[in-house]
Amino acid sequence: MHVHILGICGTFMGGIAAIAKQLGYRVSGCDANVYPPMSTQLEALGIELMQGYHTEHLADEPDIVIVGNAMARGNPMVEYVLDRNIPYTSGPQWLLEHVLKDRWVLAVSGTHGKTTTSSMLTWILEYAHMKPGYLIGGVPQNFDVSARLGESPFFVIEADEYDTAFFDKRSKFVHYRPRTLVINNMEFDHADIFDDISDIQRQFHHLIRMVPSNGLVLSPENDEYIQQTLAKGCWTPTENWSPSGDNAQTWRANKLKADGSEFEVYFAGALQGTVNWSLIGDFNIENAIMAIGAARHAGVPSKVAIEALAEYVNTKRRLELRGTVNNIKVYDDFAHHPTAISKTLDAMRAHVEQDTACEQRVFAVLEPRSNTMKSGVHKNTLAGSLAKADQVFIFQGENVKWSVADLEAQCGQPFIAKDDVEQLVQSVVERAQPNDSVVVMSNGGFGGFHTKLLTALKEKFEG
Predict the structure, then answer these.
(1) Which residues form the Mur ligase central domain (predicted)?
(2) Residues annotated as binding site?
(3) pTM for the model
């Protein structure tokens, strides 16, 4: 069978391509931008890649075309497929029919933490010799690739609430039919898809209705929107994460270090063990608790899961240290929602304050890049999310439909806004001092900001 993928270089669609190849199919695909690292990863698998959306790419007519959710009517290849009645489907639907329908699916959903929790869960199952399949929307550093078919019934998938395709406006995750479902959190996001939080809750309710009675739903008990959604109907056993409380079916953590790098894990009041790892942040503790609980449902003892996390390496772009120059640390983080930004900066603040030997400042550099951010939906809460930073630097991208400079009046710390990446880099370089931590936050490439900043710092301090 010949499968052709439209939008193949996205992380999700690239994962579909890798799995299709492992199933023995001939796989080809095209994208507007074919570039590393996904292009090199796919080429190494023997997948044919083509630049641009040109109808001649379909001259050797495939048996089926898998259409990415970035494709819209008017795209020449979409029109070609429709006009000639070439069989087509979406990535999530293809995955259900060819991979997931006979598997024990462990789906990780929620507004924040999906990639990290999916990676943790996959690593725990791997550490326990369960050889799971997985599809993760990021680069998991405990593995060589972001997706694989696996050798066991277990399949971990990052379950995104974004829509499926131009012809299927349901959330992707309704196609996955999980037995184990993690809902990390729930907030309003994706304003280009959803009108309000109730739209998002409706999609999650559809997902919950599909979890069997021998399954499990894990979620935080203090998330109002999740609890409202569960109250619409849940026919599956549940377990909760709670900041406090030792009730049956309740998980909690006890921090032993303020930055979250060491903590105890409890279930139903009983100590399960102590996690001592390289990650920081309360949000990562919550992610870990969800991963441990989901793995336990699949048969992995909590003790083994805790051992696995000691060897877990976080996915790329999650508070990833990109380099250090003259003791100025530059971090890359995917945060692009006020809550994620706040939690990231809280974690960094707690981390630097553990070292009392010297003053350590935290710089926040932000590119508002998601559709929701660019539209200004979160602009009234953004300044508050930046409160833990000592200085704030914001990029005014050409597609941002509001003035980021308006945030200056709401921020209590020094604030700089620029519409040029090079100028913003220089603004950071002029102010950075030894012992500073610079956290660069964007869900895109940010014009190579991290590399440019490290290069400029070396020129300043190392000559």
Answers:
(1) 108-295
(2) 110-116
(3) 0.82
